[in-house]
Fold this sequence. Notes:
This protein is α/β, with parallel strands linked by helices. It has seven helices and seven strands.
Amino acid sequence: MLLFVGLGNPTPDSENNRHNVGFKIIDTINKKFGLSKQKPKFKGLLTTGNIAEKKIYAIKPLTFMNNSGICIRELIEYFKINATDVIVFHDDLDVEFGKIKAKFGGSSAGHNGIASIDKFIGQDYSRVRIGIGKPKDNVEVGDFVLQNFDEDEMLELEKIKSSISDSISILIEKKLDLFSSTVNNK
């Protein structure tokens, strides 16, 4: 069993925010692999199914970014999923826009959604960090992550979503370095 988590905020006006890239990845995976219809459970929108002969749970927490860990802890306790079998998709300011880096464990690096998950389940889980770049023109970080992607970024985001979903079997095998190099070379 694996749990895919996409981080974001659940309000309609947040849909295309940089902070919601994790939600977009989960939606793409759900669609491509025909996972179940999203159902509200565990303070999130949950889907289930099989990918590469693995049972997959995928969730978009509805607890808002800064409280994502509440949703994740409830779900992993209920289904008896180990933290090491959790893979979180999230935006990352420290990664160049369009680049993707997968890693196991580590600090939150100031990302409040990751800090919340760390608080509730520890740091022993995998992360897929999707680069959103850094703010320009003295825009505050909090404002930048809540801004919508521009038109060019939305086009690039389509490529990112496809690249991740096309390489999901590598991620399921937890070959994080191979996954990172594969998705960045598509």
